[in-house]
Amino acid sequence: MKHRVSRFVFPLVLAMSSGVAWSADGVALELGNGNGADMGRVGLVWDWGKKWFAEGDWHVGGYWDVSLGYWDAHSSAGGNNDIVDVGVTPVFRLQQNTLSGLAPYVEGGIGLRLLSATQVNADRKLGSAFQFGDHVGVGLRFGSKGQYDLGYRYQHLSNGGIKDPNQGINFNQIRFTYRF
Fold this sequence. Notes:
Layout: H1 2-16, H2 19-22, E1 26-34, E2 37-47, E3 58-73, E4 82-96, E5 103-115, E6 119-121, E7 124-125, E8 130-142, E9 148-158, E10 169-179
Antiparallel strand pairs: 1-2, 1-10, 2-3, 3-4, 4-5, 5-8, 6-7, 8-9, 9-10
């Protein structure tokens, strides 16, 4: 397991310590669980700086979400696994134009994830290390400049039928983001 984890962690740590990471617009922390696994992720956020359909009080914008996660899988039948996941997701967000006070939003995205193992536990097998990760979420931005962001996400990961078995996994997540 250590060798598989280092294959994913070392390149991401290298990228996060480069100049590209320092140009990020924010950092994020996610915690969640689902289908026999607890998970945590850290990530970087890059805002697109675009506003579509901004005629009224709301607009559609978005950001890139790049993350490194760890799953602690458990099952009563054994077969417990620790899984590392690396992902990148373009996220579209419908939010208020003003960020003063509490600014609610709705968001969603479909991205790519790479896993260090394909068996979550004795009950759940994902078929391939390559997964699609889609999510929908709601939340609030707050702070004097909207720099704090607290939200809920429902995320589904699946290989899209590329390889059997394709049982997929669902997570309920709480996400906190701080934007610089």
